[in-house]
Design brief:
Layout: H1 3-9, H2 18-21, H3 26-32, H4 37-56, H5 62-79, H6 90-109, H7 125-143, H8 147-157, H9 163-170, H10 174-192
Helix pairs in contact: 3-4, 4-5, 4-6, 5-6, 6-9, 8-10, 9-10
Length: 199
């Protein structure tokens, strides 16, 4: 199954109705998940797509990304009592766990992670081939960035994190995280020949 098919199969569920869980916020769900597995399931349904998308950019193939997504949620389930409300939020906490799982996986494979993005289907074989080539070229260029910039870019655009949340995941300040994202984007623009506009 292709990565875009797996992501589509995950049916993005960004929010579980409050009536189903009796809770509205992630922090409340995380606290409730310490004693109620249904609350953890709601967190899983809310964040599984973001975790998978992030891991799909850090692994060699979509099966590895799916396996690491499952491992991330297993680790999160075991560690839910350590989650502290009011911090970076559940998504940031999960992506930190996912990042550590990807690092462990990379060490075991003894290979640098190869980026493979979830892709939306494109009409027609020629259009799909062009889209695949463009995506692959972009991912090669992202992979060539310094490690901190690459991680910040992937966490921002594949994981959907804010600079503050990226800072928690990477153990950096919010300002440092924003600089990493900005520098990474600037480096990509330079490679693509896009000139920054003046004010």
């Amino acid at each position: 199954m292709e990565p875009h098919e797996q992501v589509a199969a995950l049916a993005p569920l960004d929010r579980i109705p409050a009536a189903e869980t009796g809770l509205e916020r992630d922090d409340e769900l995380a606290i409730a998940a310490r004693v109620d597995s249904r609350a953890f399931e709601a967190l899983y349904l809310r964040h599984r797509t973001a975790v998978y998308r992030y891991l799909a950019t850090r692994t060699i193939d979509s099966d590895d990304a799916a396996d690491l997504t499952a491992l991330t949620f297993e680790r999160a389930f075991v560690a839910i009592a350590t989650y502290r409300a009011g911090g970076v939020g559940v998504r940031g906490w999960l992506l930190r766990i996912a990042r550590n799982a990807a690092i462990d996986h990379g060490r075991r494979r003894r290979a640098a992670p190869i980026l493979e993005p979830p892709r939306a289907p494109v009409e027609g074989p020629e259009a799909q081939l062009e889209a695949d080539e463009a995506s692959l070229e972009l991912l090669r260029r992202v992979a060539a960035l310094p490690a901190d910039q690459r991680d910040a870019i992937v966490l921002r655009f594949a994981g959907g994190l804010s600079a503050r949340e990226i800072g928690v995941v990477l153990a950096k300040s919010e300002a440092a995280s924003q600089k990493l994202v900005s520098r990474g984007l600037l480096a990509l623009k330079e490679v693509y020949g896009v000139r920054p506009t003046g004010r």
